[in-house]
Amino acid sequence: MMQTVEIPIWLFVLIVLFATVTFASHFLFPSVRWFFRRRLERAVARLNKRLQRPIQPFKLAGRHDMIQRLIYDPQVSKAVQKHAKEEGVPDAVASEQAQRYAREIAPSFSTVAYFSIAIRFARMLSNAFYKVQLGYEDKSALDNIDPEATVVYVMNHRSNMDYVLVTYLAADHSTLSYAVGEWARVWPLSRLIRAMGAYFIRRKSGSDLYRQVLASYVRHATEAGVTQAMFPEGGLSLTGKLGRPKLGLLKYIIDGVDPKGRDVVFVPVALNYDRVLEDTVLTAAAQDSERRFRARIGVITRWTLKQIWRRLVGRYKKFGIASVQYATPISLKEFRASHERDLTTDLARELMRRIGAAIPFVPVPAACRLLQDEGQMSEEDLKSRLLEMGGKAVANGEGEAIDDAINQLVERRILRRESGVLRPSGERTELLAYYAAASEPVDRAGHDAVAESNSATAGS
Hints:
Blueprint: H1 9-50, H2 57-60, H3 63-71, H4 74-87, H5 91-105, H6 111-129, E1 131-136, H7 139-143, E2 150-155, H8 161-169, E3 177-180, H9 189-195, E4 199-200, H10 208-223, E5 228-230, H11 248-255, E6 264-273, H12 279-286, H13 297-312, E7 321-326, E8 330-331, H14 332-338, H15 343-358, H16 363-374, E9 377-378, H17 379-390, H18 392-395, H19 400-411, E10 415-418, E11 421-424, H20 429-438, H21 440-445, H22 448-452, E12 456-457
Parallel strand pairs: 1-7, 2-5, 2-6, 3-4, 3-5
Antiparallel strand pairs: 1-12, 6-7, 6-8, 9-11, 10-11
Helix pairs in contact: 3-5, 4-5, 4-10, 5-10, 6-8, 10-11, 16-17, 16-20
């Protein structure tokens, strides 16, 4: 028993390595995980006291647990059997396909990534690019939403900055769970987006099995009270106008709600910009029948470096106003009572109507619309018309925002200034039409709601 045993050094190292891994996995790692889990739970508890709508336990669940919940959902199980029968494959193969879909969809929310990284980055980026304005049509209606209701923010989609801007402005109310398209499924961006609580969806999928897995996730999140955000247009507006709503995601939410259970409250959110960062890419894509976004990484990199250089040498200018307005919310229970026949379509139309009526005034789109209609105007007449249209939205800036907007249009060769007269330059007609179209809902709905809203400038 006490004799010396000789073994090769490589075998000794291997034994020590296995022993270390075994000790760590059975004793050290669980203790470390428990320690950090307790700290995280205490941090979330403190955070929930500050948030108007606390983070739901479903959102904090482990990603593995969430995936398991999806693939063992009764509706998904039925879809697996149906898929196996239709495709002529074993149930195990169809089940593995459902599991791949679940892994693709499920987020992995991290409070650290959301509040320590995403919110700070969103605040910095929003205020670096724009003068941010926030307004309400009926703030009391928003404040009085049932605390137990699931809130869904429904927004028009003008720019990829929409995600950043609304995440920043909603930070004091709740965390948002976005439905994100396939464009973001690239590493490492996908990891960050999952950590922010977003879930991925395929815009076009002919698989009924995939749709059932997605519907299952949306149903579980809605039943659990997770605050969500969605773009019913399904993609960025290429023309500046509001697009027709796509009903898929909205239908999943409605179908997954028990009429006698938790209410769902939809909050229409209208966004408008003096300058959409991707405007040239979007207008070019509008002329392409295949909707391709031709934004090369080199172009984006040069643009970013150019903005950094301008900031370093003191020549940087913000891109004007980015304005967000919350319209009057819609309770699904109340809406269902009078729209039983075609609930999803009627709700989508009403949401888009409210978004269109709440589109906030910003000077650039309004100026483009006036010049497109009038052909030419003196600069003084244009300024007075814009001041009249903007009301309280621009009154605090004493016309400075309007001056900046006109100068921006001239510098970008959208308008031409000659002897105090402004007219379309004829060089960038697609941008003139794009921004003019963005002001159409404002013209149709009038400006009283904007002028009388509780408008406030977000802190810089």
